[in-house]
From TrEMBL:
This is Metalloregulator ArsR/SmtB family transcription factor. Residues 4-98 form the HTH arsR-type domain. SMART domains: HTH_ARSR. It comes from the Bacteria. PANTHER family: HTH-TYPE TRANSCRIPTIONAL REGULATOR CMTR, TRANSCRIPTIONAL REGULATOR-RELATED.
Length: 110
């Protein structure tokens, strides 16, 4: 088993922060399929371009996505090839969690 370091815990905390917001989670899940332009992401997720810009900035700051210049435009992709399989694993794990446990009103798990 690999030794857990402060770097590992910081990385997991950043991922947890990123996934704590529904829009950021949807962005990450969309980017696991393929890179995308912010305007296309905004349209697909039904949010404004400003909201998309703010959320992508957060995800960049967390080191989870990266911006790739493409002429006058920029597209985004997951920053690490391990993220897509990890997100897929998390999706399988979530199936076993009670969806009513932690809602927007707070955690009711006991």
């Amino acid at each position: 088993m690999e030794t857990v370091t402060l770097t590992h815990t910081a990385a997991l905390a950043r991922l947890g922060h990123a996934l704590s917001d529904e829009t950021r989670t949807r962005i990450m899940l969309t980017l696991r399929e393929a890179p995308a332009y912010p305007s296309d992401l905004a349209e697909a997720l039904g949010v404004s371009r400003q909201v998309m810009s703010n959320q992508l900035a957060c995800l960049r700051g967390c080191g989870l996505v990266e911006a790739v210049p493409d002429g006058r435009r920029t597209w985004y992709r997951l920053a690490d090839s391990h993220l897509a399989p990890a997100l897929n694993d998390l999706l399988r794990l979530v199936v076993t969690v009670d969806p009513t446990c932690c809602s927007s009103e707070g955690c009711t798990c006991r």
